[in-house]
Design brief:
This protein is mainly β. The protein has 2 helices and 11 strands; from the N terminus they run αβββββββββββα.
Length: 181
């Protein structure tokens, strides 16, 4: 029995059993009212040895608008993306992130994030935001954005299976209610 546990621990540390344990990926946002900017968080839950991932963020253009970094869509959309320190392990490693609209048309943001170099992957126990995208709410309630074409891999280049969780969007109470508390 002890040998069996040692084998499983060794196999998990080498990433051999990682494909057997699927993690989760989801979207979460706290809405601030129509016309206001908010952060749409991409989070991972119970993912082990992740080195990088890519996905499409698909949204309805009548509900949501991508915030452009320089507010000039004439030179192409430049999404505002923030890494939340999970993949970089608190800025100990460099993370490359990129996002662009598919064919420069609103509605599908193609994104990717990866740790640089030959660094080991990161273990994410529980639920953690890995990055966020700045969006603007055009309609409340909005049509919920979804994730598609998800691909993640460990530091060996093996695929990691990720289950897609339902999108969670919350309306924040007005600031006046916060001041009364």
């Amino acid at each position: 029995m002890k040998q069996k546990r040692i084998f499983i621990l060794c196999a998990m540390s080498l990433g051999i059993l990682a494909p057997l344990f699927a993690g989760d990926i989801g979207l979460r946002g706290e809405l601030n009212g129509i016309g206001a900017e908010f952060s749409l968080h991409v989070y991972l839950q119970n993912v082990y040895d992740i080195h990088g991932l890519a996905f499409d963020l698909v949204y309805t253009t009548t509900s949501l608008q991508l915030k452009d970094r320089d507010s000039n869509l004439g030179n192409g959309a430049q999404p505002v993306i923030q890494e939340w320190g999970v993949l970089s392990e608190g800025n100990k490693a460099t993370v490359l992130m990129e996002g662009a609209l598919e064919m420069e048309r609103a509605g599908r943001l193609v994104m990717g994030a990866t740790r640089t170099g030959s660094l080991a992957g990161v273990d994410i126990a529980g639920q953690n935001s890995i990055l966020s995208v700045a969006m603007i709410l055009l309609k409340n309630p909005p049509t919920a954005p979804v994730l598609q074409n998800i691909y993640a891999e460990d530091h060996w280049g093996n695929p990691i299976e990720l289950n897609i969780l339902p999108t969670e969007l919350y309306n924040l109470p007005p600031m006046s209610l916060w001041l009364l508390r």
